[in-house]
Amino acid sequence: xxxxxxxxxxxxxxxxxxxxxxxxxxxxxxxxxxxxxxxxxxxxxxxxxxxxxxxxxxxxxxxxxxxxxxxxxxxxxxxxxxxxxxxxxxxxxxxxxxxxxxxxxxxxxxxxxxxxxxxxxxxxxxxxxxxxxxxxxxxxxxxxxxxxxxxxxxxxxxxxxxxxxxxxxxxxxxxxxxxxxxxxxxxxxxxxxxxxxxxxxxxxxxxxxxxxxxxxxxxxxxxxxxxxxxxxxxxxxxxxxxxxxxxxxxxxxxxxxxxx
Length: 260
Prior knowledge:
Layout: H1 2-7, E1 13-16, H2 20-32, E2 36-40, H3 52-61, E3 67-76, H4 84-101, E4 105-110, H5 118-139, H6 146-149, E5 153-155, H7 162-170, E6 173-177, H8 187-192, E7 201-203, H9 225-236, H10 240-255
Parallel strand pairs: 1-2, 2-3, 3-4, 4-5, 5-6, 6-7
Helix pairs in contact: 2-3, 4-5, 5-7, 9-10
């Protein structure tokens, strides 16, 4: 899969964990492949037993040199696998860990229904409380390149509206776009995406889920990322090469890949 990605022009991959076991697997994979990087985190649907011991294990894993983010973390009100209060406790603990190591976050948000926006609202509120202290530290840090100081992480699989996007920018987030923007019935996305800030977009897969057209329903993989770039270029009225260069620069700034 990594070889197919490289053949398609995708030479760097950020692979997030969703629980401690997968974090260790992700880290082992990153150790074996120069272009693969790791993110350490416990997903909201897997955080039912998140405690001080879990946090200590994550802290140890996060010190590895190929760890470039804390994630995938966030809130999920769709599956109802974990009590919402427990999700918020796990999220806050992991946000503090990201601050401790000055790492960006990879955020997950899924509402209970298409009409319910509680999860999106709650996640944005949590990030807005957390980001100012991090931003102030970064603004004062001569060690960080200027372009990284204003980025707190990425809102993975962004499905909000323009107002959500504006709040996300204000909290230092970039927006991850993947397979759904290629779906023919995703008319709302097709209208909204050209109104988003091009310099705050990142390409993603959510593999093995959300494979782009014409692979919808099949197993997703990083080799399909150019299809996302092609669709994004069409929506913005530009070229895939320009989209690739811009989103790569955004990923570089977010995860500081050029300096790892």
